Amino acid sequence: SVANRIVTQNKEIAEHQANIQRIENSMESIRPWLSLDIPMSFTGTDKTSMFIGILPGEWNLESLYGVMAECAPEVTGMDIQIISKDKDSTYVTVLCLAAEANMVEEALRSKGFAKPSKLGNKTPAQKKVSYEKQIEQLNKMIDQIKERIEAENSYREDIRLISDYYRIRAEKYD
Q1: 112: phi > 0 → left, psi -120 to 50 → alpha, else beta; which?
Q2: Per-residue pLDDT tens for 102-116?
Q3: Is 53 helix (H, G, I), strand (E, B) or coil?
Q4: Reduced to 3 states, what is the DSSP secondary structure of residue 50?
Q5: Percent of the chain at pLDDT above 90?
Q6: For position 155, what pLDDT does the model report?
Q7: Residue 44 φ/ψ region, left for φ over 0, alpha for ψ in the -120 to 50 degree band, beta for the rest
Q8: How far lies 98's CA from each of 69, 95, 103, 104, in Å?
Q9: Is 92:83 a contact under the CB 8 Å cutoff?
């Protein structure tokens, strides 16, 4: 029936809107990483190890190198980059020799280092573009569903009459 189709279409719209919200939340989670030009799943090469993650609090390069020298003095070389930071967290990459990876990781973890939860094979900027395309597609689908609902407008008066009829019958039996 027309009423069932409209109800089903409204449910589809709600599902698409929930998916848009989920995607927007995912976009927000990669926002601090947008300037990172490698995939978040990158772990290094044969001779190097890469740690991509978050440190609690605000850090600068000088303090990071100082902590690493203090916690892992045996490490001979590493490159630390701050991707972004906010009042609660500092988003970093640390590149070191593969042979020294365990010492570097241990030093980082002692300061609260955590890897991001969603790793992927695309750069954060590529993921953002992908998310934007998904949102655009979902919005198009919502518009198409709304058009189908509007096409049912000619049945509006019939639906009201049937609704009133069943409401009166229900009141009659109460």
Answers
A1: left
A2: 999 999 999 999 998
A3: strand
A4: strand
A5: 71
A6: 65
A7: left
A8: 17, 9, 10, 10
A9: yes
